[in-house]
Amino acid sequence: MDKLVLIGNGPLEGEVRISGAKNASLPCLAASILTAGTVNLSNLPWVRDIYTMCDLIRELGLEIEDNDDSVEIKGAKINSHIAPYQLVKTMRASILVLGPLLARLGRAQVSLPGGCAIGARPVDLHLKALEQMGAEIKLEHGYIDARAERLKGAHINFEKVTVTGTENIMMAATLAEGTTILDNAACEPEIVDLAEMLIAMGARIEGAGTERIVIEGVDRLHGCDHRIIPDRIETGTYVCAAAITRGRVSITNTEPRHLEAFLAAMKKAGLPMEIHPDRIEVFPHEGLRAVNITTEPHPGFPTDMQAQFIATMTQAEGTSIVSENIFENRFGHVPELKRMGADIVIDGNRALTIGPTPLSGAQVMATDLRASASLVIAGLIAAEETTIDRIYHLDRGYYNLEGKLGNLGAKIRRVKNGSDTVQRAVEELSNI
Ligand code: UD1
Predict the structure, then answer these.
(1) Second label for 36, Cα 20 to 30 Å away, from 65, 138, 265, 387?
(2) Is the separation of the CB atoms in 51 and 71 below 8 Å?
């Protein structure tokens, strides 16, 4: 397994260009199942989850050609309705093919995603909504087996805000008979991006980005060209990296309006920033203040920024209380940050970070995607070397992380499985 080696050093400096949003690309790729036409998607980040979703839709019979950050998808022939265990087990977001397959083919068999490192993560709300739309659903042999001759519009009131649930049902409803109303829908920018793509395909959708989305079903959808929005979580991760190193970083090709709650928290912490429509300039500071946050559905503070925020708060003056309200088990980074010297106490769904504490490099293990990013952020300022194991988690969601941080002056290197040694990487980094 590859590892990342970092040696904490001075402030980051320079420009970093943000890639397309992984969590917008995944539903948009799945939406291509809805049409026999040709879909062109651009600004895709070539991270592991995107390869997995491309493999999955190829497995269903769609043809995909890629070119730089774009793909052309031809959906004329779909010859399978099965999303197999081997692919779904590596990526929970594979569940996003359920709605489109059922709407286009009237049948879908999708392996049930298991629990994951950050909680149970059931898909019951996706299934309940499809049943309300007339689908017959059985759970057998670890698979969801769904059938519906043609889905019917329904009034769905999600008990809990679910991002991929809203996406799945919005896609299914585009080809249903009649009108579907989604109440308590997720409002994330990725939902709006998907709705814009579906509208470009001929879907009739109103209200995406609000708690009520209304979809009037049509008989068929056509191909489209669509550009994926910038990744707000990658953006926030670089804001944290700049902040913890007291750097001067220009974060470009992004949409700051998609991460207002996070940026407000960083401003409250005393981080000097200039926010432009498509870029953020982060400036050096003389010290940060502890800030309390609570993770919430959009437009609240995103749970996907919680781990990176805690890493940053280890260097802020005072006690920062972070309440995790979305997932029940999302503090996997805390024991690892403590091994690096952080002073953090877990109290139920709250993490109390007492700062500032000096961090020292250690061997640490990534437990999930965003937890891994928090260890990288801590490693940027930790004394001597930090080695992060299991970075396949990072590869699922961050495009060229070590290249982008390296360009900003970080001492960071990937050690390939078997081809290099950590010691050699440390020596090389020490000599930079
Ligand atoms: C998406 C994001 C993920 C982010 C999360 C919350 C993608 C591919 N992933 O995940 O990065 O952390 O939103 O912003 O976009 N729940 C149920 N039943 C369901 C569905 C969800 O109980 O059927 C619960 C979950 O366990 C969780 C909460 O609802 O506690 C929110 O989950 P959800 O919004 O569905 O997360 P994902 O869509 O899986």
Answers:
(1) 138
(2) no
Whole-model pTM: value is 0.97
CA–centroid distance, 407 to ligand 1, in Å, is 33
What is the second-level CATH architecture of the domain 3-19+230-430? Alpha-beta prism (3.65)
Compute, in angstroms, the gap from residue 115 CA to the centroid of ligand 1. 12
Pocket of ligand 1, candidates 47, 123, 162: which has the most ligand atoms within 8 Å of its Cβ, to mutate?
Answer: 162
pLDDT in tens, the chain (432 residues): 899 999 999 899 999 999 999 999 999 999 999 999 999 999 999 999 999 999 999 999 999 999 999 999 999 999 999 999 999 998 999 999 999 999 999 999 999 986 566 666 789 999 999 999 999 999 999 999 999 999 999 999 999 999 999 999 999 999 999 999 999 999 999 999 999 999 999 999 999 999 999 999 999 999 999 999 999 999 999 999 999 999 999 999 999 999 999 999 999 999 999 999 999 999 999 999 999 999 999 999 999 999 999 999 999 999 999 999 999 889 999 999 999 999 999 999 999 999 999 999 999 998 899 999 999 999 999 999 999 998 999 999 999 999 999 999 999 999 987 666 788 888 888 888
Handedness of CA 286, 291, 295, 301 (dihedral sign): negative
Q: What are the sequence ranges of the domains in the chain?
A: 3-19+230-430, 22-227
DSSP 241-309: HHHHTT-EEEEES--GGGGHHHHHHHHHTT--EEE-SSEEEE---S-EE---EEB-STTSB-GGGHHHH
Cβ–ligand 1 contact at 324 (below 6 Å): no
